[in-house]
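Run folding on both entries below.
>entry_1
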Amino acid sequence: MATNMKKKLICFLLVFALGLVPALAQAGVLTANAAKEPVATVTDWKETHKKIAENSKFNLYVCEDDLSLVVEDKATGHYMESSPSYDDGANNKTWQAYLASAVVITYIQGNTDTKQADLVKDNVQKKINYTDNGFEAELYWTKYKFGVTLKVELTDDGLVATIPDESIIEHSDTYIGTLAIYPCMGVSYLDQKEGYMFIPDGNGALIYLEDNEKRFNTGYSSMIYGDDIGFTESSVANLLWGRYEMLNDQNLTLAPVYGIAHTDDDMAYLAIVEDGAERATIEAQPNGVNVQYNRAYAKFLLRKRYTQPTSNNSTSGSFHLVEADRSHSDLTMRFLFLNGEDANYCGMANAYREYLLDRGELVMQEDNSYRTRIDFLGTEREDFLIGTKTVTMTTVEDIYEIYEDLAGVGVTDLFSLYKGWQKGGLYDLPITAYKADKKIGSTKELTQLIKDAESKNISFFLYNDALRINPDEQNATFNVIKKVNKKVFEESTYKEVYDTFRYLTPTRSNTLLNRFAKSYTKQGVGNVALAGITNTLFTYTYSNVAYSRFQAADSYVKAVEELDASTKLVMEEPFAYLWKNAEAFIDMPVYMSNYLYEDESVPFLSIVLKGVMPVYADYVNFEANKEEFFLKLIETGSYPSFYITKESAADLINTNSSDIYSSQYDVYKDEILQYTSELKAVNEAVAGAVITGHQILDNGVRIVTYSNGTQIYLNYSSAAQTVDGVSIDTMSYKVVGQDE
C-alpha cells in the first residue's frame, strides 16, 4: 500500500514538473537552452574608434584598446575594418581577441608549447604617440616579457604598418614564434559582404565571400617564395609503378601579395608584404574555418621548432629544438586601397604593376614582341654496364634543320632554350664552364648556332640550373647546404639514373656562375636562361654557421645582378625580387591549384607583367586539355612553349627525363604552326599595351581589355554565347578592336 502511494506521488511530481518547465521558460525564469544559443551584437565603430589622420582620399580611425583600425573612403563613405563590428556571439575569448587585435603573436615556451598573445586578453603595456599621419605604439607583454613597436602611417594610396626589427625584444625564454599585423583587415562575416579574397595561388585565385555552411576545415596557407627546405623532413612520395609521382607540387607563391574586395561597396585593397616576405606565409581563411569570418593576412615567422636527430641514423631517435636566434628583418605591410572601377582583382594587379615600376623593382623591356618558344633537349644519360651512356636527342645540326623547316612554313619569330647542351648532359651539374657535349657538336659549332640564330632574329639561350649539384657526377662533399639540424639536404628525384641532387650554397652558385659567364661571353655570346636559384629559397647551415632566407635571397640577388651585367638574362619562374633583372619570364602558371575553397582562377600575375616583359607559359606538350589551355594562353597574354627533340621521346624511357612522353618535332610541327599563326595575330592586336580590365561573366565568357582599347572575348562554355553584340562560338575567342 505504501509502495503504491509512493508511485502516485512520484507521478504527480513528474506531471507537475513537466507542466511547470514550459511556463517557467515562457516567463523567462528558465533560460538554459537560450543561454547556449549565440547572441549576435553590432558595435558602432564610430563610438569605439577616434579619427587620428586624414588626407585627400581617406580618414583613419583607431581604437586605443586594441589598436584596431577603420579606413574610410572619403569619396564614398564606405570603409574597411581591421576588427569586425558584427559579433555573432559564438566565439570564445581567444578568438574574440584574435579578431580584434592589431598584432597577434604565437609564442613558444619550451620545445612544444605554442599559444596566442594579443592586445585584448593579455596584460599589455601600451605607450601610444600620435604622429601627423598615424601613430607609434610601444607594446610590451608583461607576462611573457616580450615587446614590439607598431608604426602605422596613412599614405596617399592607403596604409603602411611596420614593426621595425630593432623594436622586437625578448627578455625571457618565452619566444615570439609568429606574428601577424592586422590579420583581420577587411574582415567580413559569412556572406554579409559581396566580394572575394584574392590569393597568389598559381597565376591568381579568388575565394568568394559567401556562406560556406562550414564545409571547409582549412584554408589557404602558402610560404612566400616557396617552402623552406631547411626545415622539411623527408617524406615518402606517392608513386605510380614505383617511379611516377601521382601528385603535383603546390604552386609556388611568386609574389608577396594578397587582397580583399568588397564589390558591393566598390572598395578593395591589395596587401603587399613589403619587408619580411622572405620568411612569411600568406593565409586566407574563408568562413567556417574555426570561426565564421572571412579573413586574409600575412604571418611572419620569427622562430621555428625543428627536429634534431640524435645521430646520422634516423631510427635512433630525435628531439625538438627552437632556433637559437630569431629572423631579423623589419616587418612591413602596405595596404593599397582601391575604389570604384578599380576595386577588384584587376585593379589590384594594375596597382601592383605601378608599385613595382615606380620602385624600380620591375623594368619595362624594350622587346615584348611575340615569339613562339621552342626548347630543345640535347643529351641525357641512362645506366650502362659501368657508369652511364649518352642518349642524344637533338644536336646542333638538328636545330639548324628544324629552324630551316619552320622558316619554310613561315614560322620565324622564335625563342629557344637549349637544355642538356653541356658536357655530361642535362644533369651533369653544376655547369662550371662553357663546354658543349661532343654528342651535340663542338663548342665552336654551338657558338656559331647562337650567333646565326641571333642574326635571324631568333632568341637562343643556354639553360643553366645554378642551384643543384649531382653527387653521382661531381664531388658534392663540399659547398653544399645543410638543413638547420646539420644534416645535408638531398632532393629526391624518384628516377632511375640520378636519384638525388644536393643544393649548392648561394656563395658557391655565385662563384660558378661568374666562372661560367666569363668563359661564355669570351666567345662573343651571352644569352643565359637561369634556373634553380630563381625560384628556390631556404634557411641553411654551412661550416656550422646558420644562414637565413634573407641572406640567401640577398646572395641570389647579387649573383643575378652580376650575371645580368655581362649577359642577356631570362629566368625560369622567378620570384618577384628578381623580376627587375629578367628580360623574360619562363614557365608562367596559367591555372590555380583547384583547392576545394577556390572559386575562380584569375590572371593576376599576367595582368601585372603583360606588356612589361615577354611571358612564356608551361609546355603545350604536357597539357591534357589543349583546347582550354589555348584559350588560357590568349586570356593571360602568355606566349606558347614547346619542348622539342629530334629523336623520339621513347628514347628517354630509361633516363631522368622519362616523364617526357611526347616531344618529337615531326609530331608537333603542325601544332607549332597553328599556335604561331593564331597567337601572333592576337598579340599583334595588343602590341605595346597592358591589360587594364578583366571580367568573368556567369555564362562562361571572360573579357580582357587592353590599354589600347582592344578587347578579347573568350568563351569557355559548351554553348555559343553573345555578349555586347559579339558572338563567340563554344571554346573560342574573338578579338574586337577599339573602332569595332
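>entry_2
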Amino acid sequence: MTSPTSKNSDRQALVTSCHVTWLDWFLAAIVGLGLAVGVWHGLAKGGGLVGGDTYPYFLPQKMVLAQSFEQGELPLWHNLTGLGYPLHAESQAGVFYPTNQLLYRLFPVNTAYNTSIIIHYWLAFVFAWRFARCQRISMWPALLAALVYVYGWFPARISLEWSIIGGLWLPLTLWLTELLVVSPSARRFACLAGCLGIHLLAGHFTLAFINQLTILSYAALRIVLSRRDTSGGSIPPQRLVLFPAAVAAGLLIAALQLVPSYELKLMSQREGDQTEFDPTYGHMPPVYGTQLVASWWYWHTPEMKATRAIMKTPGCVTADTNTVEAHLYWGLIPFGLVACVLIRCWRCGFDSRTQIIWLVLSLSGLVYATGWLMPLTRHLPGFGFFMGPGRYTIVSALGGGLLAATMLDRITRRFSVLRTAAITTLLCALTLPDLQWSSRTIQDAVVVGQPPIAQMGTSWLRKLLAADGRAPARLLAPGPNVGNLFGVSCIPQYLGIGPAVYQDAALRPAMGAANPDDVYPDADTIAQLESLGVSHILTLDPISRPSDELEALRQYPDPFLNAIWARGIKSCFLYRLRSEPQRVTADPPDMMTAFRLLTATANTVEIEVKLTADGTVILRELMYPGWTVTVDGAAAVAEASDDIMRSVSVSEGTHKIRWTFKPTSFYVGTAISAVTLFCLLAFVALEARRKSSADSSLATNGT
C-alpha cells in the first residue's frame, strides 16, 4: 500500500512537472528549430520539393499570390488555371493565412514555401511539447512526445502543405483548451477562438475540422474525469459550453475565408452528383494498423506497395486509399512505452487522467480512420464533406507520443535531471531515424538540391511563349496547372474544389488521338480548342499525324519541365494552332476589327476593342459571381456567353472594357470577421476593466 507521504510526494512532483520556465521554453525552441532545420536541411539550404502536389497544385497558387502581392493586389482570383477560379475560396490556397501574407511578400516563391514548412515544423514541435507539459509530463519526456507526433506523422505527408499547418494548430489549441478548462477567462477564450480561426484561414479545412472535434472531445473528457483528479476539486460541467462557443467564434473569425469557400462549394463538383467524390477515399485498412510494429520492413516494402496488398486485407472498405493517407507510425521504442501503459502494474501510483483521455481519443482516431463509420457519418455536417478518414490518425499520432512520454516520465521521475536528460536524448536519437526511415519509404515527394523552379530562367518553353506576342497564350498541356508557372493560362485544370462547369466535357478537350493513326487534333477538337481560346499544345511525344491546322514550333528538352517530371534529357514538343485563337472575340465574330490587352492581373482585365457594329464582346474566361464590368468607365451588365464565358454588350466604335472581380461573399465574410474580432476584443477589455476596478476597490477597502 502506498503511504500518504508517498502520495503527497508524487502529487508535489506532478505539480512541479507542470511548471514551465522561460529556460524550458528556450530549450524546447532550440531543440525544435534544430530538428526542423536538420531534418529538412535540403530545404534550408535552398533546395526544393519535387513530387506529389507541389508543382501541379501548390506552387501555381503561390506564384499568383506572390505576383499579386508584388503588384499591390490581394489575389481573389486565379487567372491562369483553366478559365480561372476564385483563388481565395479554393480549399488550399490560404490567401489570408498570416505566414502566406508575410513570406510571399518578402521572399521568392521557393524560399517562402521552404521557410513556411520549416517554421511550421518548428512551432508544431514547440507547441506539442508545451501541451505535453500541461498533461503533467516533465520537461525531457515531453520532448519525446513532440518528436513522435511531429516526425512520425507529417514527413510522410510532405507533399501536402496543409498537413504540417494543421500540425501546428492542433497541440496549440489543445493547450489553450486545457487552460480554459482549468481557469476560464475572456482572454483565454479569445485566444482559443482566434487560433481556431487562423487555422481555418489556411484554407484546407480537413485538419481544422478534426482539430475542432478533438478539442470538444478533450474538453468533455477532461471535465468528466475531473472528479477523479486527486490534485484538486472537480470542474463545473457548465464550462463545457465555452468550447462549442469558441469553435463558433473561430468560424466567425474565419468568415472572410469560409463564406467564399461555401459559395464555391455550392457551385462545385461536390454538390449534386458526387460520382467522382468519395469521402471514404484515403481510409486506413484495419490490418494496416499493424504498421505500428511492422512498418518500413513489411508494409512499405516495394513488393507490398506494388501489389497494393493493403487493399486485400480483412475489414477493408471498398473505397480506394494510398499509403500516404493511411500512414501512422510512432517508432518501435515509443510503441513499447505505449504498450507498457496498458500494463496495470506499471500504472500504479500516479495520475491516470492523461492516459484515459488519450487512450480514448487515440482509439477513436484509429477506428474512424478505417472508414467503417463513414456510412453513418457521411450524412452529418462536416464529416461527409472531406475525404481521407485516415487523416484522423493525427489524433492517434499525438496520443501515441503523449502516452509514450507519460511512461518515460514515470520511469525517470525519481532520476536526476541529468540522467533523465541523457536517457531521453538517447531514446530520441534512436527514434528519429526510425521515424524517418518509415516516412521515406512511402512519401511521394522528395527534396532535391536544385529545385526545378530555379531553372525557370533557362526554360525555352517559357521564353518562347512569352515572346509570342500574337495573343495571350493559353496552353493545352499534360501535368495540370504546371504551365501556369510559365506565366500563361493552362488547361486542363487540377482543383480540390473547382467550379462544377469544369467537369463538363466541353471544357475537357482530348489530349491526344484515340489511335496513333488518327489525325490530331480532328475538326471537332480544333473547334473545341478555339472556343476555349487555346493557342498552343504541348506534348511529351511527337504527334504522329498532326493536323494541317497545327504548326510545329520547336522540340527540345526543357530543363524546367524535365526536372519536375524526371524525364532526363527527353524532348518536349510545342505546337501552335494556325487559326491563332484569341482570348477576346465578338458575336458576330467579324464585327471586331481589333483588340488590345491593356491590363491583366489576378482581379482585373482591361481590353480595348474596335467594333464595326453593335454586338457582344466575349472574354474567354470563366464567368463567376463577383465579376463586374464597365465600358468606357460606365457600369454595364455582365453576362455569361454559353453559360460559361464573360460577355458584355457594346456599341459600335472603340471602347475600353474593364472586368473587375468584386465578390459579395468576400465583403460579407470580411464584415463578419471584423465584427467578431471587435466583439472579442471588447469582451477581453471589459473583463480587464472589471478586474482592474475590483482590484482598486479591494485596495481601497484594505486601506
